[in-house]
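Troubleshooting log. The previous structure file for this entry was overwritten by mistake, so regenerating from the original sequence record. Sequence copied from the archived sheet and checked twice against the printout by T.R.
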Amino acid sequence: SESSRHPDGLANSSGFVGKNLMFNYNPATWARFSEPLNEHKSVVATRVVMDFYESDPRRAFYGGGGLDARATFGPLFWAVLDNPMPGMPAWGPGLKEQLAKYRFTMQVLGHGTSLPREENSITLDENLVDAWGRPGIRVTYDDHPDDLAFAAFLQDRSVEIMEAAGAERVWRVPIAPSTIAAHLLGTCRMGDDPDTSVVDRYHRAHDVPNLFICDGSSMVTSGRGQPTMTIQALAFRAADHITEFARRGEI
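Regenerated output below.
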């Protein structure tokens, strides 16, 4: 989007477009019980634990979040996962036997803080171009050590919950650097200072008065829970202000 009017890219005089990318790290723990739970026949998250929402300095790392008891997307989803359970066969009668027991399983999924880091970014890759010569997208992401520490903390709590509930078997999805994400946040952060932010408190670009950015990229922190409702609330709020700006003839 570079041009004579926007030499650093559209709405990017601050240099912060594409920077401070954040995910929501989701540590996962599975368990199998002696009785069928049929979690996959209900809503995605059936129970939520918020006991660990606040950051606690006694933990020696920053971060907070919650735990959801959920069953993902049913046995078909489980069948295509890469080794969803240690020792689970990838094919044949053994796989069918394990899939038949899916309704006895439950997953606890954590959701916690992802700290903003300027080096976590989305940029253009001039060395990777498409058929029209346009650059590809490069995603650079390295989890903050506190994010991984808190993920491990949540997973430990998940194991404790499953064992206290009488699980016959509990297993963890290994804590590892992020390679996938469901919520992309932070790359057009909001703020009052045009030198350190891309949009203002109304999601209006500092550099381009008629441009409003109403998605998760405006968030300056990831929050400690699922961000979808926050994104929706901010978008509704921005819509109210867009209507008012238009009524006053400002856009």
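The chain has two domains: 1-22+184-251, 25-177. Archived copy saved in two places this time.
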